[in-house]
Amino acid sequence: MPVTKFTNLDFDQIKAQIKDYLRANSDFTDFDFEGSNMSILVDILAYNTYITAFNSNMVVNESFLDSATLRENVVSLARNIGYVPRSRKSSEAIVSFEFKFKGNSNSVKLKKGLVAVGAQNNTSFTFSISDDITANSPLDAGTLTNERTAKFENLSIYQGTLLTKFFVANSSLDQRFILDNSFIDSTSIRVFVRKSGSTSGLEYSRIDNITSINEKSNVYLIQEVKDEKYELLFGDGLFGKKLESGDQIEVSYIITDGKQGNDGRNFNFSANAVDDAGNPLSSISTVDITTIQSAKGGADIENVESIKYIAPRVYSSQYRAVTTKDYEAIVQSVFPDAESVSVMGGEELDPPEYGTVVLSVKPKNATYLSDFTKVKILDSLKKYAIAGINQRIVDLKLLYIELDTTVYYNSNIFSDIDGLKSQVTQTLTNYGKSTNLNAFGGRFKFSEVQKIVDGTNSAITSNITRLIMRRDLKPIFNAFAQYELCFGNAFHVNKDGKNIKSTGFTIDGNVNTLYFTDLPHSDLKTGDIAVIQLTELSGEDAPVVIPSAGIVDYVKGEVIINTINISGTSLASGLIEIQAFPDSNDIIGLKDIYLQLDMSNTAINIVNDTISSGQQISGIGYKVTSSYSNGLITRS
């Protein structure tokens, strides 16, 4: 009898195994399985086995977090390790306005719910608040008609509509408290519980774990259930206060459009205002809303890939920020728009800052975090951080990589030069978007880039690729300042200089266009940064205006510019681009340095390989491209 393999999922292989098994039986030794009715029975058996094997494989896959694909299963598996996926997040705007009215009320209360309607890309979005907001309303100076003004300043409003749902607790063990909507911002959920017949209730607080509660704690937890809805979980009398039969539960929450509500502005007042007695108030004039900050921070519900990545990492952190991996996981949990996170202990800084954790966050589809977002992230980290440890968020340092690629091709195979250039451009663009490069700690692999360029089209015979590293200096105009640029990669050193190059700028007291360059020391490990001036007569022998404007460390890859008063730049962006040649063609993103392939400054040249195409077999007249960079003194 043949050995049966139970791992086959292919129909034909299963059918062949059944036939082999039957032929091993003496009763079917010479039986014709192809031309008899037995073939139909074999097909049925093979089909049944195939479907059973497929279903078994899918069931097993859905039992593990790494291989599960259905959201409901992924959420359930994440729940087993105490992780609740992020809900949709309302975008938050900050506004100020004055509410004028006539009356005797000393305060004005904005009722929770709709506050304003904001416009964004010809679309209107509602903005609400989850709690009542009260402001004092003193008499206006010099008024004789009892006019008052309530000032609401720096008021946070959230995109979405506030809804309320009521439950009545009973003694059933099967009762579940499920919120009916799928677009809930879980941070906006407010829960009040009151006894039957009572007009006032107690607010319950949401918790993430049960380590700090007792049998009297007024708390609840949430979990995601089917169709991206949420269920409230209350205490059992041991961990958290248990609900009693007849308790009335009021739940309010905001349903939001997520990231679609970002950038909302130009708000129109739509709030429900009441006096200190609860009577409705009307404004005696148009309420003009001043937008302090347009809507930001809106996000869609956490996707399956993010849950599978973050859940085990948050679990390993045990909801406390101690190690760098803890901080990375928690930041990505509280700030869903984080594309990559870098964390450094203060002891790694120069000079060291003990007791400090320095974070750098690369947001999705943006370069820098706003000050508002930084404050939000730091506030969210407080409940995870250890006492006595301070957190600080710094802007990431972009290290641009520019390529100068000459591509040789066989014109007999492919003759469309523009089409080939477009293909190479797309190949490099795709590589520039890869996670291997676009991340803190990313690495630019030179051999890999050469390989993918050669593999773009079968007509390509080879390529010569040269690299440039660039950092952008944003000067403070008309003010004395010092600057430091860290490349995090050693510089290639030419003893004659021309290793550091820049675009033009002007300084106070000199209207001519100046440039930064370097003057290496004899050890070729350090050098001076000099400021030079190019003229039509000087050419590359440019006169030095400031011989010691700073220092360069070729080994560490650092450029430090001493105190200087820069008054303008040649680039309209107001930046000074400073470039260097890497000592190694493999470039890494060190610490808080974020690598980015700059396709806008990447040159792609297409050259006919006359040897491969048979035009010049001897090689005479073959166009040779240098593998070394140019010796110009300025950035071209």
Radius of gyration: 34 Å
* Overall average residue pLDDT: 87
* End-to-end CA span: 77 Å
The secondary-structure class comes to alpha+beta
Number of strands: 33
Reported for the largest beta sheet, the result is: 7 strands, mixed
Description:
By secondary structure, the chain is of the alpha+beta class. Helix content is 17%, strand content 36%. It contains eight helices and 33 strands. The strands form seven sheets. The protein has a seven-stranded mixed beta sheet with strand order 7-13-9-10-11-12-8, covered by helices on one side. It has a six-stranded antiparallel beta sheet with strand order 14-3-4-6-1-16, with no helix packed on it. Strands 20, 22, 24, 30, 32 and 33 form a six-stranded mixed beta sheet that branches. A hairpin with a 7-residue loop joins strand 9 (184-194) and strand 10 (202-206). Helix 1 (11-23) crosses helix 2 (38-61), helix 3 packs parallel to helix 4 (304-317) and helix 4 packs across helix 5. The longest helix is centred in the N-terminal third of the chain and has 24 residues, at 38-61. The N and C termini lie far apart (77 Å). The model has no long low-confidence stretch (mean pLDDT 87).
Keywords summarizing the entry:
alpha+beta; 8 helices; 6-stranded antiparallel beta sheet; 7-stranded mixed beta sheet; 636 residues
